[in-house]
Write a structure and sequence with these properties.
heterodimer, A: 315 residues, alpha/beta, TIM Barrel, eight-stranded parallel β-barrel, 16 strands, globular, B: 257 residues, Elongation Factor Tu (Ef-tu), domain 3, Rossmann fold, 2 domains, seven-stranded mixed sheet, six-stranded antiparallel barrel, 22% helix
């Protein structure tokens, strides 16, 4: 069978399927479970300095199989208690990527140091949560802030740093270039797309927070466009995320330039067994395509596309 | 997925427990739960205490939201999503139910469903005091023998309901024990049934956010109560160190539970 291994941000992964941040990931047992189900690596819930309860319920709205809207509000037990969860996942052999969020560069850097102390293999900076005031996308949509935070973290840790970017901006490539200037080893794209739901009967937003972030198959074209643009804009690798449910979805992201992909909403749609299915199906598809490994596919759509129109907006 | 239904009836079951009924035609099985949204307040997981087209939830005062829910009058709109989770396996013929406090809320519809299939139940029903015994008459109406224990001795045996379990199993010829209540209680039920050869099935409660198997709020060892439960065979729970000891708070901290 084809070789599914990939390298990204200094990590050697057995396959390109990472558990996305915020999915499972509150406990070490869940991170371990995702790895044992077949994930190539796992990304923790975004962890902050102090325990945070997040928003009240309702925090989610599910749209059949096409979309999932959430406003969790970055609930997490705080960096003080979280290392024990990382230890449980590491003991199972899982490559653990520590996701952190903060209000400013210093807070990100402190959390990065603590994550390094807890033994994670890489860091993912959550610069992209679409519904938390003063956090996430509110700071992550400014290229200067992305560069400053990334640089601060890179200067304080030896770990590879991955910047997770928001699509809720007019120019995600500018954010990727800022992360690259700041010294990031890779970028993840995309976080959720800002959205909301309104109950017609009650005439009010259904999420307690009002605004949320949309994930799932509905945002796959958005994610693909972002990965494609970023791949063109920077030399550092891209990790694709957004609406990947099948191996075919993953292939699209690889062709757009992703060296790895993250799986989130698919876990709600198909259970944690989706990792095993993705690994099996991607292997079969590569065999069918006569492709020996992922390298041949990564970014291939750019080579084909170079002969045609361009990368600009649709007509 | 979420629908808005008006409350059709409100029944005070005990001084701390109220049942709200509403019409909802989604099929549900005993053991399953819904996410119940009180617009303007929280959305909380609630096991169904009635599973037919006229569904019901039986709410015990735990905090501000359950107190608010209890005060809701007929006609008030509620948001419902689900039913979620698994259900009791109704293949055993003779089942001992062990209910502590509001645990009777999930066991009552299971007992009725079993009775409808020709099965029979015997009930060990516990509460802090006589007035808090939940669904005693509902169980009696099924023709079930109901054995009562109260912490203060105001009705039945004085002490925890788990004291009744050993004796009932000795006399009983039961195919299964179904239990719902505080986890320390369920642990004692499991211990009491050990050696009897009668399998124990527990309905477990955890705080939930998504109820879709994504957010990890209801993680219990390797399981997620929202999709793997809330009904678990005891042998799957006993090896989990958190069972009977800790839960996650809204921030995901492990706290005594």
């Amino acid at each position: 069978m084809a070789d599914l291994s990939t390298r990204v941000a200094g990590l050697a992964l057995r396959n390109p399927f990472l558990l996305a941040s915020g999915i499972w990931g509150e406990t070490g047992e869940s991170l371990r479970g995702a790895y044992e189900a077949g994930a190539g690596g796992v990304i923790t819930k975004s962890i902050g300095r102090a325990p945070r309860t997040g928003y009240p319920n309702p925090t989610v709205e599910m749209y059949d199989r096409w979309g999932f809207l959430n406003a969790m509000g970055l609930p997490n037990p705080g960096i003080g208690e979280y290392p024990r969860e990382i230890a449980i996942a590491r003991a199972a052999g899982a490559p653990v990527i520590g996701s952190v969020f903060g209000h400013d560069a210093e807070e990100f850097a402190e959390l990065a140091e603590a994550m390094e102390g807890a033994g994670v293999a890489a860091l993912e900076l959550n610069l992209s949560c679409p519904h938390a005031e003063g956090l996430g996308a509110e700071i992550g949509s400014e290229p200067e802030a992305v560069e400053r935070i990334t640089r601060a973290v890179v200067s304080r840790t030896r770990l590879p740093v991955i910047a997770k970017l928001t699509p809720n901006t007019h120019d995600i490539a500018a954010l990727a270039r800022a992360a690259e200037r700041g010294g990031a080893s890779a970028v993840s794209a995309i976080n959720t797309v800002r959205g909301m739901a309104i109950d017609v009967h009650l005439r009010r937003p259904t999420l307690a927070h009002g605004m949320g972030g949309l994930s799932g198959p509905a945002i796959k074209p958005v994610g693909l466009a972002c990965v494609f643009q970023i791949h063109r804009a920077v030399r550092i690798p891209v990790i694709g995320v957004g609406g990947i449910v099948t191996a075919e979805d993953a292939l699209e992201y690889l062709l757009a330039g992703a060296r790895a992909v993250q799986i989130g909403t698919a876990v709600a749609l198909d259970g944690i067994g989706v990792f095993g299915t993705l690994v099996r199906d991607l292997g079969r598809r590569l065999d069918e395509l006569g492709v020996a490994g992922l390298e041949e596919l990564i970014g291939a759509a750019h080579r084909t596309e170079a002969a045609s129109s361009g990368t600009g907006d649709a007509l | 997925m979420r629908r808005i239904v008006p409350v059709s009836d409100r029944t005070v079951e005990t001084p701390s427990t109220v049942t709200l009924r509403f019409v909802d035609d989604r099929p549900a099985a005993p053991g399953q739960f819904v996410m119940l949204w009180v617009p303007g307040d929280d959305e909380i997981p609630m096991s169904l205490s009635y599973v037919g087209p006229r569904k019901g939830v039986t709410v015990k005062v735990m905090g501000a939201t359950s107190r608010h829910i209890q005060g809701i009058s007929p006609g008030t709109p509620l948001g419902i999503r689900g039913p979620y989770g698994n259900a009791f396996d109704l293949t055993p013929h003779r089942v001992l139910l062990v209910a502590g406090g509001s645990g009777a809320a999930v066991l009552a519809p299971a007992a009725e469903a079993l009775g409808a299939r020709g099965g029979e139940v015997e009930v060990a029903l516990g509460a802090t005091t006589a007035s808090e015994l939940l669904f005693e008459e509902r169980f009696a109406a099924m023709g079930a023998a109901v054995h009562v224990a109260t912490d203060d001795g105001s009705r039945g045996e004085r002490g925890f309901v788990t004291r009744l379990v050993g004796g009932l199993l000795d006399r009983g010829r039961f195919d299964a024990v179904w239990t719902c209540g505080p986890e320390v209680m369920m642990q004692k039920v499991i211990a009491a049934a050990q050696g009897s050869g009668v399998p124990v099935v527990c309905s477990v409660e955890r705080w939930m956010k998504c109820a879709l198997g994504l957010c990890d709020a209801c993680a219990l060892g390797p399981f997620h109560v929202c999709v793997d439960g809330p009904v678990f065979p005891a042998e799957r729970l006993s090896p989990i160190p958190e069972f009977g000891h800790t839960k996650h708070d809204a921030a995901g901290r492990r706290v005594p539970g």
